[in-house]
Amino acid sequence: MLLDALLDAWALVLPVDCAGCGARDRSLCADCTAALAPSPTRTRLPDGTPVVSALDYGGVVRQAILAFKEQGRTDVARRLAVPLAAAMAGAGAGVEILPVPTSRAAYRRRGYDPVALLVRRAGLPAVRELATTRRATQQKKLAADARAGNRDGYLRAVRSLEGRRFLLVDDVLTTGSTLAEASRAVRTAGGEVAAAATLAYTRKRVQHPGVRSLNVL
Question: How many other β-carbons are positioned within 10 Å of the β-carbon of residue 133?
Fold first, then answer.
């Protein structure tokens, strides 16, 4: 897409430091690229939806994702798309890929939707069937026990999803409240959620009572 090409071109105009360690190098140096090798972990949402996460959200992984989401470093999207694609492959096949949409405010601030961009960089087709219904406080600003309530009723399907099966995709699994809300919205519209996939998961927060850890793949 034209927007993707423009974002990449702009990133190349700026002086390039490694998004993972800050060293003057490429978008990601060799060591930081190696740190993005997927090591999928399975968890479940409270409604039983299986989730596959590619990476542990810490260190280089955290720095690269924050650079991508908060610093406009779209030049690392292709690197991050590789582990996300691995998580999506591990979550199953024969389903429609449904990225969890960013809020309108976040899109205006960034100029792009991070999850949708990663899915495109992975070369995978996706559908846009969910929309936000209201403005919500940024999840990262809330304690774990406040996150679920912040997302209640936050998403809706834009049409009937009767008879369709989906793989939900998000960037980071923390308490699972965002994916749980997306799952609710799909099922309310008559669709089925087969599984979910995320680029990374937060090890400390994923132990929240709402999300049960399962085995490492």
Answer: 11
Burial of 66 (0-12, 13-18, 19+ CB in 10 A): middle
SS3 16: coil
Please say whether the beta carbons of 69 and 114 come within 8 A.
Answer: yes
Query: What is d(CA 42, CA 119) in angstroms, rounded to the nearest whole number?
Result: 20
d(CA 67, CA 77): 10
For residues 153 and 188, the answer to whether their CB atoms sit within 8 Å is no
8 Å CB contact between 197 and 51: yes
The DSSP-derived string for 141-168 is GS-HHHHHHHHTT-EEESS--TT-EEEE
Output the CATH code of domain 40-136+149-216: 3.40.50
pLDDT digits (tens, 9 = 90+) for 78-133: 999 999 999 999 887 789 999 999 988 889 999 999 999 999 999 999 999 999 98
Q: Structure pTM?
A: 0.82
